[in-house]
Fold:
Amino acid sequence: MTQDYKRVALIGLGLIASSMAHAMRRADLGTDIVGTARSAETRDIAREIGLCDKVVDTAAEAVKDADLVVLAVPVGAMSGVAAEIGPHLRPGTTVTDVGSVKRAVIDAVAPHLPEGVHFIPGHPLAGTEHSGPRSGFAELFDNRFCLLVPEGTQDPVALEKLQHFWLALGANVETMEPDHHDLVLAVTSHAPHLIAYTMVGVADDLRRVTDSEVIKFSAAGFRDFTRIAASDPTMWRDVFLNNKAATLEILGRFTEELFALQRAIRTEDGDHLHDYFTRTRAIRRGIIEAGQDTDAPDFGRSGSKPSPTTKE
Ligand code: NAP
Structure:
């Protein structure tokens, strides 16, 4: 496989960055991978497992001579990292990120980048509930979408190289406008996560059952909620604080629909419930037909490997 980047710097070495490192190796890109993370503990683990060709102590050091810099830290940490690396970036370098929100990341990062640096925000729609440098695996992005958000007049060659890079990592690539991205993700990921967090919180409030029945008799629906609600608290705090308007808009609509369903149950309007569930079932079929999930029972999750999802 030909390489467009001689050196890639991964800033943050969690689930997404470590999966990118594995996928780059699998693709045999021949790219020099330099990584760094905030804590000495994460950097030590990365060295121990040979995640990168080189692990350095600071982000400033990591971006030196890099052709591609990937910001793979929580959304709320993007600004600080960008401020640190800005003075060390050379013209012609491409900076991208993998944050789950796009408008806030653009506002946080762009002001710190010098002239001549290509900033192309991105978001791979793939994740699991696991985090940290040991959680990554090469297949995470296979057949998942990676959305690139080139704002304004981006260099077409820089964009093409980044598209090529994500294709090599197994992803399908599409471009999208940032506010549209944030609205779509509020529907498909952010609001569903909040609902899962809430449902698991409600169960936890019912202490009587939490200690025993909820765990023991955990049915598929609740188990799926608990998996989602086990996602990294820092990452998700930052997602909601940085995609506030779109998430609140979708949650408003959700609440209206919930009230309508609540009324249908109270008034025993079975037709309303049946019609609604028929409509939602078709959406699940559409996702399977689009190859974005499997129709295996239990969502094909019975294997030992963490299940890639489009949760993010
Ligand atoms: P992760 O496994 O929790 O790893 C986060 C990394 O960021 C760690 O290396 C951590 O360093 C570092 N970090 C945390 N806070 C920091 C700070 N204040 N300053 C500098 N570095 C900091 O996270 P992840 O799941 O890979 O997520 C990374 C990004 O990808 C996030 O923006 C997230 O929104 C996005 N994303 C996540 C998923 C998903 O499902 N997980 C999917 C798509 C996109 P230490 O280890 O040293 O603490």
Notes: The longest strand covers residues 7-11. Residues 180-300 form a domain with the 6-phosphogluconate dehydrogenase C-terminal fold fold (CATH 1.10.3660.10). The beta strands are 7-11, 32-36, 54-55, 68-71, 94-97, 118-119, 122-124, 145-148, 172-175.
